[in-house]
Amino acid sequence: MKKKLVSTLLCAAMAVSLLAGCGGSADTSATTDTATEGTDAAAEETEAAEETEAAEETASAGEGKVYYLNFKPEQADDWTALAAKYTEQTGVPVDVQTAASGTYESTLKSEIAKTDAPTLFQVNGPVGLASWKDYCLDFSDTDVYKELKSDDFALKDGDEVKGIAYVVETYGIIYNADILNTYFGKDYAVVKSVDEINSFDKLKAVADSIQENKDDLGVKGAFTSAGMDSSSDWRFKTHLANLPIYYEYKEDGISSTPAIKGTYLDNYKAIWDLYITDATCDPAVLSSKTGEDATAEFALGEAVFYQNGTWAYNDLSTNGMSDESLGMLPIYIGVEGEENQGLCTGSENYWCVNKNASEADIQATLDFLKWVVTSEEGCTALSQDMGFVCPFKAFDNYPATNPLINIANDYVSSGKTSVAWTFTTMPSEEWKNGVGSALLEYAQGTGNWDGVVTAFVDGWASEYAAANN
């Protein structure tokens, strides 16, 4: 800002000098030595112009810009508004571009190769970092890293901090409390309280009962449509697939593997069957169903259950749902001891700064990040507008108002064990796509479950080997 002010003052001074020079030339035109005075005036104008250009170059040196390639489409407008506010305050240009759902990796590959590449981008964890670490600045000596509450939220490569988690999120099965309470009052209800739904068997019994009595309840199905287009399939090929991976890792005492065994794939099949059977639509049409379809079905009261996370709150609220209507259950898949299971909590959103950007752009990006995680405007935007739980010190003063976050905290407070986000160890986006395609073929009846197992197990081994040549 000081440099910008200096530039403005210098330009103003030069403008005054130029005006004075022109005025002097006019005054001296009446003298006998007009040619000499005209030559002097021209020289002064040239010198002034050169000084102005030099001043502008000096002022612009060190002034950087920010280009943020955002991962989360649901917060695209919020980020654009926050960037505009920062630019208004500082004069620093901040461009926010958001990749379409399911296309972030390919978009980043395209954008990073351009002259004006992103100065700020994201990776989803260790696997993502392995692909992009050569582009990532070491955050170790930066102000934004010093604002982290714990190193647990730092993504490291050796001693270097290559990424910083900026949001901790939770997902599970969101439910419509109003409809579920109506169901509990029916003679055909198999349970009388949401507290009784603490296992896959109980969840299935309730869902089956709701599906059987959907007309009486005024719903189209127990679960929203499990859409398998790119705006929705990540809920199942990534987030739902996290459960069998988590339990296999837990059983084997590991945190990653070059070859998944598929120990809990029968459990994966059981919950997927429930999603596509007790639903608002026929499984044959899932290829055309979108994330927006599922959101609308849930918000309109056409379904009771909706697998999604804390980030969905803004969409549901915008569509007219009250905080009191929202609840969230763990995703039960029929594993022993799951009555003590909590929600799925973690992060796949790590900021990385492009170390190949200019020095000015790197500094501008770091300054922007510090403002985002320390200023009232930044903290309010992330915690209130975007509904994030952020692992930075200043956010203790800005608790989120998202009721789904409070529900997640209640599970932890009651002693339930959160399910870690092990899907950040999935070997590649191609692996996810293979599993997603196999799930869809199985649902449509054009494939069998063996195809899902093959994509899950054999696909993991081949994609891991390709990524870790």
Q: Your description of this structure?
A:
The chain is an alpha/beta fold and 469 residues long. Helix content is 49%, strand content 13%. The chain has helices spanning 2-28, 34-60, 76-90, 104-112, 126-132, 143-146, 177-184, 200-212, 214-217, 234-240, 242-252, 265-277, 291-299, 313-318, 359-374, 376-385, 403-413, 429-444, 449-467, and strands at residues 66-70, 94-98, 120-123, 154-157, 160-165, 169-176, 221-223, 303-309, 326-329, 341-346, 350-353, 417-420. The two termini are 48 Å apart.
Quick structural overview:
The protein is an alpha/beta fold and 469 residues long. It has helices spanning 2-28, 34-60, 76-90, 104-112, 126-132, 143-146, 177-184, 200-212, 214-217, 234-240, 242-252, 265-277, 291-299, 313-318, 359-374, 376-385, 403-413, 429-444, 449-467, and strands at residues 66-70, 94-98, 120-123, 154-157, 160-165, 169-176, 221-223, 303-309, 326-329, 341-346, 350-353, 417-420.
Jot down its keywords.
single chain, 469 residues, alpha/beta, 6-stranded mixed sheet, 19 helices, 49% helix
What coarse outline follows from CA principal-axis ratios? Answer: globular
Average pLDDT rating: 88
Helix content: 40-55%
Report the portion of residues in β strands: 5-15%
Q: How many DSSP H or I helices?
A: 19
Radius of gyration: 28 Å
Q: Which secondary-structure class do the elements indicate?
A: alpha/beta
Count of DSSP E strands?
Answer: 12
Major sheet details: 6 strands, mixed
- C-alpha termini separation: 48 Å
pLDDT under 50 segments (min length 5)?
1-61
